[in-house]
Each structure stands twice: as structure tokens, then as C-alpha cells.
């Protein structure tokens, strides 16, 4: 196994930068969700989440097959994770992630296909779980960063 001496402080800095980038994207997505919910377009909101879940699935498949990421920060963090976990464990973890995201994408696609959104204005209350998941993912990532 090709061991690389990693500067843990540098990896922590990169993971914090990645967390900030993630929070910026999620904030923009949250504002878009608020707008779509306020305008009474639940179909657009659910379709947006369906589309994003498929994009996440394709991105993770790309990451698994090529071993590359789109940004320099993500690429270095990916290299660190692969080195720290080992190739076999990293691959198994990524495959599990892809399967879970794919199942969610399929279920969301089925939901979009069979739900009648033309009825009266539907209250989705999708923003409360969204906020909870956002906070939970931040806490989890901060804990993982501090455990390095």
C-alpha cells in the first residue's frame, strides 16, 4: 500500500472549506425551496429534489469509476479518504452510498410520477426536514473533522 504522510491540519482545513462550499450550495437550494413553496408550486419543488438526487447518483458513480472529483478541494479530500480508509473499504463505502442514493432517487421519481399535483394547493412542509437534515449533516461533518 502506498502510504502518504498527510498533514492533518491541512486536511482539516480542506474539509472545512468543503463544508463551507456545501453550506453555500444548500443555502441557495433552501432559498429556492422557500420561493417555490411560497409560490405554491409543489410539483416544481419535488421535481427539483428528484433531479438533484439523480445528479448526486451520477456524480458518485463518476467518483467511483474514475477516482476523480470536480474541484481541487474535493479531489484532495477524496485522495485522503481513499488513503486513510484503504481502497477496498473506500470502494465498499462508496458503493453503499450510491445504492442508498439510487434507491432514494427511484422512490422520488415514482412519487413524482404517481402524485397528482394539480389538486388544491398542497402543504408539503418539506422545509422542516430539510433544515433538520442540514443541521444534522453539519454536526456530523464537524465531528468527523474533529476526529481526524
What can you see in these coordinates?
Helix content is 80%, strand content 0%. It is mostly helical. It has one domain. The protein starts with 7 loop residues before the first helix and ends with a helix. The model has no long low-confidence stretch (mean pLDDT 83). Keywords: Membrane, Transmembrane, Transmembrane helix. The chain crosses the membrane at residues 20-37, 43-62, 94-114, 126-143.
The backbone outline, from C-alpha atoms, is globular
Number of strands: 0
Helical residue percent band: over 70%
Strand content: under 5%
Nearest-integer average pLDDT: 83
> Oligomeric status of the shown chains?
single chain
Series of H and E elements: HHHHH
Q: What is the CA–CA distance across the termini?
A: 20 Å
Alpha-beta content class: mainly alpha
Number of contiguous helices: 5
Low-confidence stretches: none
Question: What is the count of structural domains?
Answer: 1
What profile does the largest beta sheet have?
none
Please compute the radius of gyration using only Cα atoms. 18 Å
What keyword list fits this structure?
148 residues; mainly alpha; 5 helices; 0% strand
Q: Briefly, what is this?
A:
This protein has helices at 8-38, 42-66, 72-85, 87-114, 127-146. With 148 residues, it is mostly helical. The protein has one domain (8-117).
Amino acid at each position: 500500500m502506498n502510504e502518504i504522510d498527510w498533514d492533518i491540519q491541512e486536511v482539516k482545513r480542506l474539509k472545512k472549506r468543503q463544508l463551507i462550499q456545501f453550506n453555500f450550495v444548500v443555502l441557495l437550494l433552501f432559498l429556492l425551496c422557500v420561493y417555490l413553496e411560497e409560490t405554491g408550486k409543489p410539483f416544481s419543488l419535488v421535481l427539483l429534489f428528484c433531479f438533484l438526487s439523480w445528479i448526486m447518483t451520477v456524480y458518485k458513480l463518476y467518483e467511483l469509476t474514475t477516482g476523480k472529483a470536480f474541484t481541487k478541494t474535493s479531489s484532495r479530500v477524496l485522495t485522503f479518504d481513499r488513503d486513510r480508509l484503504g481502497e477496498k473499504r473506500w470502494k465498499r463505502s462508496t458503493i453503499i452510498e450510491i445504492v442508498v442514493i439510487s434507491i432514494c432517487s427511484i422512490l422520488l421519481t415514482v412519487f413524482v410520477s404517481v402524485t397528482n399535483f394539480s389538486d388544491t394547493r398542497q402543504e408539503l412542509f418539506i422545509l422542516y426536514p430539510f433544515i433538520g437534515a442540514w443541521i444534522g449533516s453539519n454536526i456530523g461533518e464537524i465531528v468527523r473533522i474533529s476526529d481526524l
